[in-house]
Request: fold
Amino acid sequence: AQRVTQPEKLLSVFKGAPVELKCNYSYSGSPELFWYVQYSRQRLQLLLRHISRESIKGFTADLNKGETSFHLKKPFAQEEDSAMYYCALRSGSARQLTFGSGTQLTVLP
Amino acid sequence: ETGVTQSPTHLIKTRGQQVTLRCSSQSGHNTVSWYQQALGQGPQFIFQYYREEENGRGNFPPRFSGLQFPNYSSELNVNALELDDSALYLCASSLPGRTSTDTQYFGPGTRLTVL
Reply:
């Protein structure tokens, strides 16, 4: 069965500092991985997907199949990045998402 | 283009009762997925509906059931409510496929409290 692990429930960094949110997965097939973000009082929304290999709001994430990881990184954190971040893996006939438990990122001024 | 909407926003029920939650999918989306998010956890997949048929199911008992209507809106029904059913229930709509068009767009959720 697939599993997504986000080891940090809380992460605080200062504005301008680099930030890395960790995500590890367990899946026997070829993974499709995503990062979702939920800003305060907003709904869950897609931030980026590994297949697109894109940078969104300065965030990037590289799939490392050897380490089964998909860490989210940003070189210079901004206060508006403060939010809950969820890593998710898509699988199954319904292409459903399996989420990690989330990391609450706080960017301090 | 309207986004995913859910009703009601909040709901309080007692153990043993039944509840129906509703979801209207984003315009043009014919696939609806339901997730349960317990406090402090990530969303957990309940089931998905595509063209009015159940298209996949997570590890939830049969007392969790659903419907999808011809206009692609959907209902989640939970019978014999238990205390552990207290959670945020999220609905997500999408188009089926294996491209960027199959992104799941989430609604704001319904907060269910079972006393």
Chain B touches chain A through 28 residues (CB under 8 Å). The longest strand of chain B covers residues 87-94. DSSP finds no helices and eleven strands in chain B. Residues 20 and 77 of chain B are 5 Å apart (CA to CA).
